Structures are given as C-alpha cells and as structure tokens.
Amino acid sequence: MSNGADETQNFGPESLAVQAMGLIDPQTHAVVPPIHISTTFLRDPDNGYRSGFAYGRADNATVRELESVLKMLEHGAAALAFGSGMSAALAVFLSLPRGARVLAPNVMYWALRRWLMNEASSHGLHVCFVNMEDLGAVRTAAGAGCDLIWVETPANPLWGVVDLAGMAEIAHAAGAKLAVDSTCATPVLTQPLLLGADVVMHSASKYINGHSDVVAGILVTRAPDALWERIENMRASHGMLLGPFEAFLAMRGLRTLHVRVRAACTNALDLAHRLQAHPLIADVLYPGLDRHSGHAIALRQMKGGFGGMLSIRVRGGEAAAIAVAARVQLWKRATSLGGVESLLEHRASVEGAGTPCPDDLLRLSCGIEQVDDLFADLDNALRAGAGEAP
Ligand code: PLP
C-alpha cells in the first residue's frame, strides 16, 4: 500500500508525516488506510508467507505504517512500535546480555529510574546513575566498563539537556551503545540518530499521538544490529506489539505532530518568559531561557524550539505549589504530557522518596490553547494563594 517510495523522495519530513508517507489503499484508493485487525494470514500454496505476515503477535500492517513514518522522521534504519513507552524502554534493557553495565541518568522519567534502581539487577544488569550533563563524569564512569548509555533529553522534570553528539562519542569510545529517550524533544526538534545515537525511544503516548488517548512506545535504530534483532525477537515473544487501533490513532495524531509541537514550543517559551518575572515564582526551569544550564546545547541541538515542557518552583514551598495546582481551571491537574491540552502536576508527590525533584515544583506540559488564557489561569491561581484578588 503505497504511492511508491520514489514519489516520496523529494518531500520534507513534515509533508511526508502529514500524508502518512503517501499511503493509499490499492484496492479502494482510500487516502486513509484501513485498520488491519486480522491475527492470522493465509499461507501460500507452497507453504510460504510472501505477504510477510504470519501471526499478529509479531507484526501488524497498521503498526508497520506508523513505524515507517517514525523511521523516516528519525532517519533510522528500522522502527518498532510497542504497547507503551515503558515496554519499548524495557525491551532495550532486557535485550542486553546478563552482566551488562548500564549508565543511566540521575534525573530521568521516574518510573524507568525506579525500574532501573529496583528491578534491573534481578535481570543481571549493573546500573550506575550519573549526571548526564557532566560529560567528564560520564567519560570516567564509561571508562570503568559500559555496554549501554541511556539518556533522556530534555530530562524530566528539571529539563537538563544532554549533549548527544558528545555522549555518542563517549559511548562509542567505550564500546557501548547510546540510547536516547527523546520523548520530550520529539522528532520535530531533535534527531538523536543523526547526532550519533544508536537507538532512539519515544513514549508515543505523549507528543507523537498528542491527544492523550493512546498508550504507545517507539524504538528506532540507526542500524539493524544484533541488539536490534534481540529487541525485535523480544517484542514478538513477549507480545509487546502495539495494537492496531492504537497504531491507527497514533498515526492519525502523528499527521499533525509538527504543527502541534511548534504551537506548544511557542506557548512554553512565552510562558517561561512571563513566569520568570512573576513575583510568586521562585524559579522557572526551561531550556529556552538564556540562564538555563542546558541553553547553549539546546540552541544547537534542538531545531526550531525548546519543547513544550517546563517546570516552575512556587514561592511558599510544597503546600503553596499543591494549592496552586488545586486552583487552576484551564490547566488540568493530571499526569502525562505532550497532549493538545495543558497539564500541570506536582511531581514530588508522584515520584515519592528519593526523587531529585524539589517539593515546590510544578511540572507544566504546555498545550496549544491561547497562551494569554494559560498565563491568566496560572496567575490567578498564584495570586489567590497569596491572598490577592484574582
Ligand atoms: N519516557 C518519558 C520521558 C515519559 O514521560 C514517559 C511517561 O510519562 C515514559 C517514558 C513512559 O511512557 P509510557 O507511559 O508510554 O509507558
């Protein structure tokens, strides 16, 4: 089902994503491809499977369509879609040999950090947590032996930025692979594989789907090497494949990825500037601000924006931050990120003991609503707490 690869060659990634690579159903000429739900496929008379499909646990045509767009957007050799971002990430870790040594960030998506801290050792992995913004520290840690460096950039929930080209050089010098959780950078702003990473991962539940109605994960590889083969086998044997309806919805969301991400970036930058001047906010963490520790790297590594995620530290501590979250109306008090609607969350209460997240911090996922409304809603919630009339 295609217009033919040659016809897509001269078009840019945004045009190709909008049209899902120009896929057209050959039978009906539908411009929206049908959803393939069959779990089993007719064998050829000579016992072969020339269609390339045999059973629905390993593969699915609708899932492949989503994968083909992500492979294109990330400039990879192959992509695999999973039932969640966690499932995609764990497929990488569980495909490492027993005894493998992993460097992971000390600030990262908390559920994966928790798994790496509590579960990874029972799978024979040795995990060392490092400050990924300090390349010297990473080089030293990698020099002691390393099979995989896992980074997240910008990293939840403090939005530190990792120098991916520098990190790839360190990983490869140590004989390790570099895997990047690029969920918050999105394929619009950063293409880690072009900077030397080996594998890129997305929680497609976030910007890729973009409408907070699908849980999905994506891996894209620079080369279909031995690790990738193990990941592919793991997905098939553990039944980690994304379902066809979810793949269809994610593909539908992906068609508008570029416009959504650009709108979210514009809102986030505008809000970051306004909020850093707010008397009731102690700090704003956003890579788009000049004084952010990752700003210089973000300027060269993130093309066209600094992402839709930022965090604020509310004057008055934890209770004040939770009270602000309780008072907002347009912002929705909910976990997750990357949807068209703006979400806000008190992260320390989600992450629990041992979190690197300060207790006065609210994480903001900027959606694409009118930015004046987003600011006014936060401003009202902040001022009401300080006893000022909204
Ligand atoms: N990576 C990041 C940066 C995330 O924010 C999340 C989820 O919040 C994940 C990974 C996990 O993805 P999922 O919820 O799709 O399993």
3D architecture notes:
By secondary structure, the protein is of the alpha/beta class. The protein has 2 domains: 35-254, 3-Layer(aba) Sandwich (Aspartate Aminotransferase, domain 2), CATH 3.40.640.10; 257-385, Aspartate Aminotransferase, domain 1 (Alpha-Beta Complex), CATH 3.90.1150.10. Helix content is 38%, strand content 15%. It contains 15 helices and 12 strands. The strands form 2 sheets. The chain has a 7-stranded mixed β-sheet, with helices on both faces. A 5-stranded mixed β-sheet has the order 8-9-12-11-10. Strand 4 (148-152), helix 7 (164-173) and strand 5 (177-181) form a beta-alpha-beta unit. The model has no long low-confidence stretch (mean pLDDT 96). Bound molecules: pyridoxal-5'-phosphate.
Number of domains in the coordinates? 2
> What is the helix fraction of residues, given as a range?
25-40%
Q: What is the beta-strand fraction?
A: 5-15%
What's the CATH H-level homologous superfamily of the largest domain? Type I PLP-dependent aspartate aminotransferase-like (Major domain)
Q: List the total number of helices.
A: 15
Largest sheet: 7 strands, mixed
Mean pLDDT: 96
Distance between the termini: 56 Å
- The order of strands across the largest sheet is 1-7-6-5-4-2-3
- Radius of gyration, Cα only, in angstroms? 21 Å
How many β strands by DSSP?
12
N to C succession of SSEs:
HHHEHEHEHEHEHEEHHHEHEHEEHEH
Structural category: alpha/beta
Shape: globular
CATH architecture of the largest domain: 3-Layer(aba) Sandwich
Unique ligands:
pyridoxal-5'-phosphate
Question: Residue ranges: pLDDT <50 for 5 or more in a row?
Answer: none
CATH topology of the largest domain: Aspartate Aminotransferase, domain 2
Given this structure, which CATH class of the largest domain is correct? Alpha Beta
